[in-house]
Amino acid sequence: MPPAIRRALRDIALNRFLNAVTVVTITLAVIFAGAFGLFFYNVNGLFLDWQRGIRMMVYLEDGISDAQRLDLKFRIKTIAGVAEAVYISRAEALETLKTQLQQQSGVLDHLRGNPLPDAFELTFRPTAHEGPGRLDRIAAEIEALPEVGQVLYAQQWLQRFSTIFNLFKLVGYGLGGIFGLAAILIVANTIRLMIYNRRDEIEIMRLVGAADGFINAPFYICAMLLGAVGSLLGLTILLALYSGISRQIQQSLYGALPTMSFFPWYWCIGILIAGMLVGALGCLVSMKQYLKA
Amino acid sequence: MRAPGVTSVNGDSGALIRLFHVSKRFGKKTALTDISLDVAPNEFLFVTGPSGAGKSTLLRLLYLAESTTEGQILIDGVNLARVQRRGIPSLRRKFGIVFQDYKLIPSKTVFDNVALVLEARGVRQRLIQKKVGAMLRMVEMGDRGDALPPSLSGGEQQRVAVARAVIGDPKIILADEPTGSLDAAAAEAIFGLLRHFHQRGATVIVATHDIELIKASQERVICLEGGRLQPLPELGARTSHAPRN
Predict the structure, then answer these.
(1) Does B237 score more than 70 pLDDT?
(2) Using alpha carbons only, how large is chain A's radius of gyration in Å?
(3) Same domain (yes/no): A189, A283
(4) Per-residue pLDDT at A277
(5) ipTM of the complex
(6) Which of A100 and A274 is assigned the larger pLDDT?
(7) Among A5, A19, A284, B201, which residue has the least CB neighbours within 10 Å?
């Protein structure tokens, strides 16, 4: 075993309590930040699903001929992102409304004529949801056509949801940052105490010609190991909590919500690497302070 | 003014260690004043003087534990004023240092204390095992490799310290009061070891106020008093600033 790893393991064994506290702190940080991340990960998926299923209603001006309507349909379908344009005549729309109103449909009997306009119901390709404001641009392009009276879709609802979601995301980033910083400071403190415990040894190493890399390496290995173990523990506990909670939710809502999912494997590896980076950063903070002193 | 024996600042005198008008102050306190000195390769030099005379400071300047306030020091042609922080470890590998308080790591075994020097240089474990084993046998500590320093006597600890100092084949051995806390027999044993490594080619500088040990040897002596080089009348011609031929 390389001497640096041997010395790092010895340091961990010598400072068990201190290292346990550090691992627990990193674990808690991963659980809290991970829980937020998991929430956003699933809500974001839900949001994208809703966005993908969105439909746009294009209401036509009165007095459009069949030829003009066919031409309009052709022009709408050539717009990038539009998958299908289904024509709904005013008569069909009224029938549908009556069906939806059921017992209250009697109120429509007093109408002199059909007030509903002819319309196209549009569905979109997945590319139409890429990038912000893409649907807005499509709607504006269609609304500019002379035969089109009005274009309606769940734009405001989507925007409001998006704003709230982004606000939550911001809070999540902030909390994640605070947890990360707390973890860095705890690791830094642990390493500082380790350095303090071994200050004589470090001084002797310097006197015998040991380079900084040789002296620092065990501390970095130790800090990164603490970060990795803390992250792994945090992820394991998070997975267990997630499994229990998601099962409860699915059972109580009888599957009304789309299936929830845990972080994909590459996210888990990313969190593990982030934990190691937190450890390395904590160590760097302590080392900088020590070398300055 | 040029000190006796000092030729030029370029280090062309053949000296391994050269000091040019070196002074060292700690705040208002002056530790060394205008020291000029040459030490030849494979020379054995005593630095003596009373406590607080500046002997330890002189040695600390050589291995860059301190930097000079004035003057320059050349070690093996390298001007210490120009050595950057990252260059210090490679400079220190030219030295083997023996401290009065041994400076052994109490939580490491005798073997590991000595092996540390080689580990720091990236030497392979197999070679470390071989070299450290041989070195411990040479200093008669072959059977104490697994012992921890606190369980050893002062003389044994200093022998381990000597082993650690020489395991990396240094050009220069610095010993700061190596016998300060030892009885006469243990002190003689340590000097015996230092002489042995001197005969194998190392340049040895020993700072000591043990005048009896100095008198018993025939090596060159410099005397410091109040941070200045002073003649030591009782030793006559041995107290020179330049190496003896």
Answers:
(1) no
(2) 31
(3) yes
(4) 92
(5) 0.82
(6) A274
(7) B201
Distances (CA, A) of A209 to A213, B48, B97: 11, 26, 10
User: What is the number of structural domains in chain A?
Assistant: 2
What confidence score (pLDDT) does residue A241 get?
92
CATH number of the domain residue A147 falls in: 3.30.70.3040
Say yes or no: A185 and A133 in one domain: no
Compute the average pLDDT of residues A43-67.
82
pLDDT score recorded for residue A181: 87
Q: Would you say residue B4 has pLDDT above 60?
A: no
> Looking at residues A99-121, what average pLDDT do you find?
78
Q: Where is average pLDDT lowest: A151-155, A262-266, B45-49, B146-150? A: A151-155
Domain ranges of chain B: 42-57+84-238
Cα(A210)–Cα(B168) distance, integer angstroms? 12
Give the residue from A113, A122, A108 showing the smallest Cα distance to A58: A122
Are A145 and A229 members of one domain?
no
Assess whether A142 and A268 both reside in one domain. no
Same domain for A171 and A96: no
Residues in B closer than 8 angstroms to A3, CB to CB, are: 119
Name A152's bridge partners: A57
Calculate the alpha carbon distances from A58 to A64, A117, B184 in Å.
13, 10, 108
Which of A203, A208, A212, A292 has the highest number of chain B CBs within 10 A, making it the mutation to test binding with B?
A208
- Structural domain range at position A287: 3-50+159-292
Question: Of the candidates A153, A187, A221, which is a domain's last residue?
Answer: A153
d(CA B114, CA B149) in angstroms, rounded, equals 11
CB < 8 Å to A205, chain B = 116, 120
Q: Are residues A166 and A283 in the same domain?
A: yes
Q: Per residue in A112-138, pLDDT tens?
A: 778 888 999 988 887 766 665 777 888
Task: For residue range B114-144, list pLDDT tens digits in order.
Answer: 999 998 888 998 999 999 999 999 888 889 9
**Which residue of chain A has the CA closest to B92?**
A209
Q: Per the CB < 8 Å rule, is A204 touching B105?
A: yes
Whether pLDDT at B69 is above 90:
yes
The Cα–Cα gap between B111 and B132 comes to 7
Which of A201, A207, A214 minimises the CB distance to B97? A207
Both A143 and A27 in one domain: the answer is no
**Run of H or E including B29:** strand B29-39
Instruction: Collect contacts of A255-262 with beta carbons under 8 A, ≥24 apart.
Output: A257/A46, A258/A45, A258/A46, A258/A49, A260/A42, A261/A41, A261/A42, A261/A45, A262/A38
Which residue reads 């390769």 in tokens? Answer: B41
Last residue of a domain, one of A124, A153, A182: A153
User: Same structural domain for residues A32 and A164?
Assistant: yes
